[in-house]
Amino acid sequence: MDDLPSGPDARARLELTAIRELLKSQRRRIHSYARAHRSPSQGPVRPTVPPTAAFPGGREVLDALPVPALLLTPVSGDDGDIVDVHCTSHNAAAVAYAAERFPDSPVPDWSGPVSLYERFPSLYRTPLPGMISRAHRDHEVQGPTAVEWVANAASGPVRLIADVRVGPCGDQLLLTWERGHRLLMSAAAQRLVRTCWAEWNLGDDGVEPSRGFRQALGLPESEPLPTLSDLAGAATPDSLPGLYQMLYEVILRKRTAHCSLRLHSTPGRITRMTAEPVRIAPGSLVWGVRAVFTDVTAERRRRESADHAEREARRQRQHVKTLGEVAEALREAVLPHFHDELASYGLQATVVYRPDAREAGVGGDWYKARRLPDGRLLVALGDARGHGLAAVTLMAKLRYALAGLAYTEQPVEQLTYWLNETACADGIESTATAVIARYHPERSLLSWTCAGHPNPVLVRDGRATPLPSPPGGPGLPLGVLPCTSYTAAGAALRTGDIVLMYSDGLTERRGSDPDQDTLRLLDAAALSFRTTAPGPGRDELHSYAEDLVARLDGPHRTDDATLLVLRRITPH
User: Fold this and answer.
1) Cβ density class 283-307: b for 16+ within 10 Å, e for less
2) Is 65 helix (H, G, I), strand (E, B) or coil?
3) pLDDT digits (tens, 9 = 90+) for 221-275
4) CA torsion, ordered 73, 76, 81, 86, to nearest 10 deg
5) Inter-CA distances, 479 with 42, 331, 416, 440, 501, Å
6) How many alpha carbons fall within 13 Å on the CB side of residue 478?
7) pLDDT class of 181 with cuts at 50, 70, 90
8) DSSP 232-273
């Protein structure tokens, strides 16, 4: 194991020193406690080894064992190797085990030695023959080892798994096994959930680990089992504060605690160490530390990924919110709010806008109403490509460009041509649709062009109809193709006529037919007119516009929606 970490990390040295001093202090307390409670005649316990002798008893001694047992007599070949083993005796637990595992097969009485491999041939292909040979040769207990074999029963082959031990018993061998396969299941559990456990004796640094302890922690098999001090030395500096706090809680406060642990041998692996105090009697000193280690690397990485995703989502939400606030502020700054300023032209105007909440609440819809030096009125409504700040920026460019171009007093066909050239020069992303109109108050005439936009709708005497398209049909959207010509159409307005100019976000639905979308608008416009019966005031006109938008709006909408309403009135 690693010693004190080298390098400039003085804090890590202090943490490691504190851990080792904590362990040394507890060892001293344990030794003091043991001396104070030792009998005067009691000396150190020395293990005794009984002399090797023949098995002294018979069936009675075997029956005293709580686990199934067989007494085996090795059979050696000419070269001294064991070629077979004979079962010379068995206990009651072995008979009960056989009766339970083979309920349909009677258990025969053994009147004499029986060849183990003849009775259970599949055992010859298991670890058992090697265990028997080593126990006989080395006179040492072998196992426990998980042994799996197949035995034939009346109902068919039966798969058997047991934890088997083989030990010398005089000139014979004693084979015992325990029901099930706890060792195999324990190893599988450790592998499947990436866990292991160990118990440390603080009095002498002894350690009792589970199988796979070294593998689970990434420790070399060739090195001795680590003490708690060694484990601290193998930990990375960032793990030491948590390890010290955990040991302090377990040893001094006698509480269960846990910490995260990284080892130098596996720096990319994160292990959660959960420990509890081990005491001989309630209220006595903590004599040991029992700990479970669980590999939580994948869990921690998933949590970190989730935290990162959450932070990124918060950042994106804040970005969208900020973008929406900026875009909305820009929209409010550039789009007009109508009052009665158009009354001198014999018009009323109102507008209803519904943002697309999925896209920062702001899209590219725009509109314009401006008095011109020649006494006429410029009215326009458009839809710039995209959403958010980029769409509002393009909308502002087109709107201000149109306002400047309108002062040339050229007809709307020429204004639309120039606006298309402006959009084409701005780049391939600068596309938009628009209806650009000029109102001639002296003739009550609305002259308008269409650049890929829905035609305005005329509501007269409660009946809604689309205005006929300009000669040659609607033109291309702005920014698609330079040098595109546009033609204008004219509509003479009567007093009380209402003209609806709108963006396609108000009517279109995903997968629907555009003609059906238009018919739905016409029906809604007529129904709203009958329902609201808008009076002569601008507020009544706005109520009509709100009612119409409410009839068409809904969760199906995937874009922002704008409705600009003009009504012919008697000039003031």
Assistant:
1) eebbbbbbbebbbbbeeeeeeeeee
2) coil
3) 888 889 999 999 999 999 999 999 999 999 999 999 999 999 988 888 899 999 9
4) -30
5) 103, 21, 11, 28, 21
6) 34
7) low
8) HHHB-GGGHHHHHHHHHHHHTS---EEEEEEETTEEEEEEEE
Closest by Cα among 480, 505, 479, 525 to 365: 505
- In angstroms, the CA 260 to CA 245 distance is 11
Q: What is the DSSP string of 77-102?
A: -TTS-EEEEEEEEE-HHHHHHHHHH-
Q: What's the token pair of residue 315?
A: 């950042």
Distances (CA, A) of 513 to 417, 523, 554: 29, 16, 17
Q: What angle do CA 282, 284, 285 make, to 5 degrees?
A: 135
Instruction: State the Cα–Cα distance between residues 275 and 163, nearest whole angstrom.
Output: 28
pLDDT digits (tens, 9 = 90+) for 414-470: 999 999 999 998 876 779 999 999 999 999 999 999 999 999 999 999 999 999 999
What tokens does 425 get?
Answer: 């020069």
DSSP codes of every residue in 442-491: TTTEEEEEEESSPPPEEEETTEEEEPPPPTT--BPPBTSSTT-----EEE
For the record, the structure tokens of 360 come out as 């920062």
**Which residue in 506, 518, 522 sits closest to 554, CA to CA?**
506
Q: Of 455, 451, 449, 393, whose CA–CA distance to 426 is shortest?
A: 393
Query: Please, are residues 23 and 252 in contact by the beta-carbon 8 Å criterion?
Result: no
Give start and end residues of each alpha helix (H) in 288-431. Answer: 297-334, 388-406, 412-426
The size of the chain, in residues, is 572
Query: Which tens digits make up the pLDDT trace of 87-121?
Result: 998 999 988 888 887 776 665 555 568 898 888 88
- Give the contacts of 400 (CB within 8 A, at least 6 positions apart): 334
Please tell me the predicted confidence (pLDDT) of residue 47. 38
Among left, alpha and beta (phi > 0; psi -120 to 50; other), residue 429 is alpha
Could you give the CA distance from residue 228 to residue 208 in angstroms, rounded to a whole number? 12
Half-sphere exposure of 280 (CA within 13 A, CB side): 9
> Among all chains, which residue has been given the structure tokens 């028997």?
132
C-alpha to C-alpha distance for 22 and 248, rounded to whole angstroms = 8
Could you count the other beta carbons within 10 Å of the beta carbon of residue 517?
Answer: 16
- Going from the C-alpha of 532 to that of each of 35, 391, 542, 551, the distances in angstroms are 101, 34, 10, 12
Task: Record the tokens describing residue 201, joined without a space.
Answer: 């004796």
To the nearest 10°, report the CA torsion of 13, 14, 20, 25. Answer: 160
Q: Which two tokens stand for residue 346?
A: 């014999």
Q: What is the mean pLDDT of residues 7-27?
A: 85
Report the run of H or E that residue 562 belongs to, with start and end. strand 561-568
pLDDT at 153 over 70: yes
Identity of residue 478 = L
Spatial distance between the Cα atoms of 285 and 203, rounded to a whole number of angstroms:
11
